[in-house]
Amino acid sequence: MSTLPPALRADCSRCAGLCCVVPAFYSVQGFAFDKPAHSACVHLTAGDRCAIHADRAALGFPSCVGFDCFGAGQRVTQELFGGSSWRRSPEMAARIFSAYSSCLALHRLMAALALAERSASPALRTELRATREKLDELCRTEDAKSGRLDIKGLGAETTRLVRAAVASSRRTPGEQRLRTISATGGARQR
Hints:
Elements: H1 62-66, H2 72-80, H3 90-117, H4 122-138, H5 142-146, H6 151-169, H7 173-184
């Protein structure tokens, strides 16, 4: 069972095969052949399903097995484009592909934040959740649809928070309590 929130879990049945179309992939990365970006994998059916899904690893696609869009595919397909297909027109494809690239990056960052929340101190957990909610809202913006987001800057902020969560989880319970007391301005009176 996944420890990620439902919105960050991939649901291929609600996607239009975007992971099989948008990114380029290369044989040296664990794919049976090279494929340019924005072109469908030869195994993607007209119904936007993988024809070799059950046998991907055996047929030379171990990287497909390990891939996770963290829900970006269904978000773009269903939420941002109301079920429209990238096959409809080159213009629609360009818009959907741009949105998928942005949302994939944002969903990866949100997944890292969600996982970090599990071990963070309560104060840091609140900051992690607020940052994840901010990234979630960014997915709905025109900047996300058009690929005009500062993914590098957002990634740097996410990395800083995740590192802080990891560092806080390594402290002893006494150190964590002392840190909480310091952060709140002193011990609570009973």
